[in-house]
Structures are given as structure tokens and as C-alpha cells.
Amino acid sequence: MVHPKLSVRGATSPASPIRRLMPHADFARSRGVHVHHLNIGQPDLPTVSTMRAAYQRFAEPVVAYSPSQGFAEYREALAGYYNGLGAAAGGPAINADQILVTTGGSEALLFAIATACDPGDSILVVEPYYTNYRGFAHMLGVEVVPVTSFASEGFSIPAERVRAAIRARTRALVVPTPGNPTGAVLTHEALAALGAVCREHGLFFIVDEVYREFVYPEDGDLPEVAPSVLGLPDLTQHAIVIDSVSKRYSACGARVGCLVTRNAYFYAACLRFAQARLSPPTVDQHAAMAALETPAAEMRGMIDEYRRRRDLLVDGLRAIPGVSCPTPRGAFYLVADLPVDDAEAFCTFLLREFSLEGETVMMAPAEGFYATPGKGRNQVRIAYVLGRERLARCLTILRAGLAAYAARPRSAARSI
Ligand SMILES: Cc1ncc(COP(=O)(O)O)c(C=O)c1O
């Protein structure tokens, strides 16, 4: 018998740093410890009422394919959403034929990178980055070139640093705003500065706006909704928006997203990829279309809740000796510096060796969110997708865990 061989691409595809510690969490559970998950961006808030009602209403006798680009009515409604947001205020209005409905924002990212790059090309990503950018690039034989952002600079992205990282085969800059994992929000001016670099060097500017509504302005220093790259009139050929209903409507399992671009050639190429996978989800598109009618007060309630959680978490973290973090301005994540040399060893310790009254916390070590070796070693990403009472409990557990880790016997330290 001759064993079939995995592709190098398959065998070397990077494991998700968010899920890598799962076996340790299973171990914690097996020793009877309750694990609070701060490591995964699965919102706990109820899916918006409009979507839940639409799922109940669905009564077609056949769950059929939809058009590869998504239902026309849904794309029309989405165009109304983008134009109503003012996202397209700076440029020509968005129309339905510039919107491609995808299976989550994830597929939109895959199509966008595949359309921008050939194998051997590279994309620029700002580290710490959303790790699936690297996963998709790897799948496509595309190299990820990191541009480092720093907590001390509020994880801002200086255009000059981006320019300096461009190489001969760089084809696109991929940026989330609001950011995962940093919570940083790009102002209109910051977007324009990055856009200018993309124009100058002929790069696609792939802007991941899936957290657009989750913004926390102070005294009007940011708009209520994160500025969109669609509002930059001179980027019509460069700008690609990645979007999703997952976070906005607390509906990660719906698997509906979209890609928006005014570049007709880019759109046509993405559509050919979309035709190969036939169709985005049918029932979920009905629900996603209903989501656009969600009452403003319901959306506001969700955003305000995340803001209260952020405040509780940031204040609580900063009150723990040696812990620091910039205030995230959007999304529901933050990156915190911990007083440890190796955050992965500490997170493992919390799961395997520690508990406070039968409870512990699971966080994502941030090293896996960086491409530069050694970066983020003392950092963790925390997602604030738990209620405030539980978050407060997590802070107590973290404080006790850090104290226990600092006081642990040397032999235990070696065995971690
Ligand atoms: C920044 C960012 N982009 C895209 C996605 C993809 O989400 P989905 O495929 O559920 O739309 C996520 C999910 O966590 C994300 O955080």
C-alpha cells in the first residue's frame, strides 16, 4: 500500500491561536473546573429579533440555491444600507451589482485575496492581526508581510510604516476597522492616508468592516459608525469592503457576509469564484435581509452593552498590578500586556493548574496574532462577549491567577 501524501500547504497550514489551547480547556473541565471563555469572538447577546422572526417565517417547500451573487432583493436592500449609512457619501452611490453576497465575511476575504494575488505574491497585514488573514493567505500560497502596530501608539497604523513594508510582489493591504484584536478604529483621515499609499503603489485596499457599528466615541471624537473606505471617492478601483452579519446582528451561525467594490473587473473575478461554489446560504439570506429592518433602539442597546463591558474590563484590567491596555475604540476585543514573560505558558497554567473556587478563565495568547517572531509574547487577546457580572468575576480570577503564577514553585514553572 502506498500512503497518499498531504500537500505541503495542507500539512503546514497554521493552527488557530484562538483555539490552540482548547485541549487544555477540556483538561480543566475534566478536573471539574468551570472555564470562562474570553478567547473567542462569539457574541453572547441574542440574535436580533428581526432575524429570529424571519427564520420562523421561512416556509418555502424547497430550500433551493440562490443566485451565486446573492438574491437581487437582498443586494438592493444592502445597497440602501450602504448608501443610507453615508458610507458612499464621498463617492458615487453603491448599487446592487457592486455587492456580492458570500458565506460569511470569511468567504469574502478568501475571494478578495484570491482575486488580488497569485501564488507567491504578498499582502500587507497590520500585526497584531485577525489570524484568518494569515490562514486564507496560506491556503492561496500568498505571503503575509506584517506591518507592526504598537499598544503604546494605540495600535494606530502610520501610512509611512505601511509604505516601507511594500515589496515587489505586494498586491494588497488588508486592514480591519474597527480592529480585531486591537479594537482600534481608523478615522476618515487615517483611511485616506492608507488609501493614498495603495493608490500610489497600485495595491488593492481590502478593508474589513465587519464591526462597523461597534464604535465608542468620546465627546464626538469618532463618528457613531466607523468610517468606511467606500466614502473615499478616489479609491473606486482600489477599495474592497469585507462585511458580515455575524457580529452586527449577533448571528455568527447565519454565515452571510458580502464583498462590496466599485471595481467591475474585481467584482467579475470574485463572481466567477462565487459561481464555482454555487450559492450563498438561502434561508440565512432571508434572515439577513430582515436584519436590515432591525429597530435602531435594539441595535443601540447592543452597542451600549458592549461599551459598558469595555469600560468595566479596561478599568478592571488596569487595576491589576502590572497589567496595561490601550482603550479599544470599537469592536469587542482588546490586547492587554500582562506581567509575565510568556502569555501562552500563563494561559496554559490557568487552564491546567489553577482555579479560583472551581473557576478559571481562558484567553488567547497574542503571539499567534503576530508574524514577527517574539512579538506579543507577554500579551493576550480578550473578547468581551460575556455579561458584566461574569466579566467582573473573570477579572477577579485573572488577578488571583497572576498572583498564583508569580508565586508558583520553580519546578512547576519548568513543567508548563
Ligand atoms: C475582523 C474579522 N473579519 C472577518 C471575520 C469573519 O466573520 P464571518 O465569517 O463570521 O463573517 C471575523 C470573525 O471573527 C473577524 O473578526
Report what the structure shows.
The chain contains 14 helices and twelve strands. By secondary structure, it is an alpha/beta fold. The protein folds into two domains: 8-46 and 297-415, Aspartate Aminotransferase, domain 1 (Alpha-Beta Complex), CATH 3.90.1150.10; 49-291, Type I PLP-dependent aspartate aminotransferase-like (Major domain) (Aspartate Aminotransferase, domain 2), CATH 3.40.640.10. It has a seven-stranded mixed sheet, sandwiched between helices. It has a three-stranded antiparallel sheet with strand order 9-12-11. Strands 1-10 form a two-stranded parallel sheet. Helix 6 (131-139) links the parallel strand 3 and strand 4. It is globular. The mean pLDDT is 95. The structure holds pyridoxal-5'-phosphate. Pyridoxal-5'-phosphate (PLP) is lined by residues 41, 104-106, 130, 176, 180, 208, 210, 244, 246, 252, 257.
Short description:
The protein is of the alpha/beta class. The chain folds into 2 domains: 8-46 and 297-415, Aspartate Aminotransferase, domain 1 (Alpha-Beta Complex), CATH 3.90.1150.10; 49-291, Aspartate Aminotransferase, domain 2 (3-Layer(aba) Sandwich).
Bound molecules: pyridoxal-5'-phosphate
Which structural class fits the helix and strand makeup? alpha/beta
Number of strands: 12
Radius of gyration: 22 Å
